[in-house]
Amino acid sequence: RERSGSGAAAACQSRARDPGSRSLTRQPAPRERSNSMIADPEGKLRQIFEAVDVNRDGSINKREMIKFCRSSPDLAALLGFPEGVRQEDGSRDILERRFQAIDRDDDREVTWEEFLDFFLAEMAAPPVA
Hints:
Layout: H1 7-13, E1 15-17, E2 24-26, H2 35-39, H3 41-52, E3 59-61, H4 62-71, H5 73-78, H6 91-102, E4 109-111, H7 112-124
Helix pairs in contact: 1-6, 3-7
């Protein structure tokens, strides 16, 4: 699998061609962090992780992440994921790349540690211009 140096940059810079309209769509940059995310990032990330981990097995798989993006578009956008996931508009590819960037050990599941490390590092990184 391909990995990019900056998951946020890769997700935000990704472009996908929509075969139906021939227009380019671009994944928006992760939304500005909320005050609760800034005040207690680990606590807020834990809440999000637990909301996504529907089966409570301690890890997030792609199916859970897709359902999360569809049911919580604002939180998905906050984390840099597409607000909706569809094969035909390129949003599925964006989700795949971002998920793979978080999944350091390539086991196709994201653990709490991978999730926390990824997003804390991303929050600490300077914004991409």
